[in-house]
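Quick question, first post here. What does this chain look like in 3D?
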Amino acid sequence: MKSDIEIAQETTLKPIAAIAANAGIEERYLELYGTYKAKVDYKYLRDNDAKADGKLVLVTAITPTPAGEGKTTTTVGLADGLRKIGKSAIVALREPSLGPVFGVKGGAAGGGYAQVVPMEDINLHFTGDMHAIGAANNLLAALIDNHIYQGNALGIDPRRITLHRCVDMNDRQLRFIVDGLRGKANGTPREDAYDITVASEVMAILCLASDLDDLKQRLSSIVLGYTYSGEPVRAAQLNAAGAMAALLKDALKPNLVQTLEHTPAFVHGGPFANIAHGCNSVMATRLALKLGDYVVTEAGFGADLGAEKFLDIKCRMARLKPAAVVIVATARALKHHGGAKKADLTTENLAALEKGLPNLLQHVKNITQVYGLPAVVAVNRFPQDSDAELALIEKRCQTLGVNVALSEVWAKGGAGGMALAHEVARLCAQPSNFQYSYELSTSIVEKIEAIAKKIYHAGAVSILPAAKKQIHDLEKLGFGDLPVCMAKTQYSFSDNEKLLGAPSGFTLTVKEAKVSAGAGFIVALTGDIMTMPGLPPVPAAEKIDIDSTGKISGLF
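> Answer (accepted):
Ran it through. Tokens below.
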């Protein structure tokens, strides 16, 4: 069996200028990064504002398991499938972070015959967006500590600096550090921390900004810390936004690549969904909507995280309205949720499948009943799946009025996604009653409780004393009307990653609340969530290599 990278390397790519021309992008908007990558100038949106938008299709998934679900693969294959049935389709994805690429998860360019390419470039540096975001973030960090060193006219309390430095790598050693040591000339000693770049507020800002002016305004609004008297200090007070925006001016432009079947693909922005809001950039989504009749996009992890934030945060801010939602599942992942061991997932086990199905059904009900959106379940089919297992999944989904489409895009590319494409096109033609899971006018606590009870199905929310005070202070400072971005484990509906399936009645514990004023949301941290992941015992980096000709191997 060929690996993902072998399949990608055997494919003959078209020059990206040809892909852009076929999508309707004029040469004057295109900035080439070699032969197969390009950025599209955001001026295209300004010049084509009157053009009608296509239909927006969100691809999400069940709660992830070690068995894998194939959400990105399905997203790519669906876009190819739509083109196979004669539709004009474009795909919009997040950029991979180097942390997961070298850690546990691997790359994020799809798989098998449903990939975006060049997959090596996309997974490794790409067009430099991640580095630009890290540089802008760390410039602000440097300005903060320089301001304190130069006399601290703003009265910034070094104990209450909330902006962390960042690096796009899983490095647990940097989670908590002490810097500014070895004398006065080297700064003011203080406790500090690093986040992974994709968890930084600058990443969230880049992905939610509507244009360059909006980017600057959002950067100016970053609350970097508090004074000794408890007043928030913003990046604007350090005159940082202009220089930060200068570093980000090219990173803000969406990246254009292609699928193995030459479907245009925007790959831009990559906030984590278990920490940040987990969606590709607003700029890329809007560009795609102007260019295709159907835009297929994804949100990170399960629907309780990525889809919730896509709908309650991104769609609200960007005034987007999805036409349909695809919920990806596999029989083996559902058996895992039903208690089957990883080694036994390829064996037929209807009892474990029956026990695990409530996880899928809860996600389906959230999408159709809480958000009022039409949905289809895409079962990512594996050769070991039995007909009886597939029939059981279909039967249980139909009790909720939702159809199931088998997806075989990993093995067959777009041809394996045609059944799903037909169902998605049918759903997009239907009216929907899209609504959010909460209103902005409610309090921060009420918004947290709405997400916890409506989406996670918690019985109660426990807000620890420190978080209560933080929420009180945030509302007092005027941040109470912002949406909430939950930081929670991706492996469970609850804040306990060991609770598989569809737990209910549990107590969700909020440990900390902070404002990302530039991004425009409140972050509520639950459980043991960390903003800087660590590497596993055997990192994926150990298997990645390059030969004397420059050919890369080991990426997946």
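The chain is about 35% helix and 20% strand.
Residues 190 and 531 are 19 Å apart (CA to CA).
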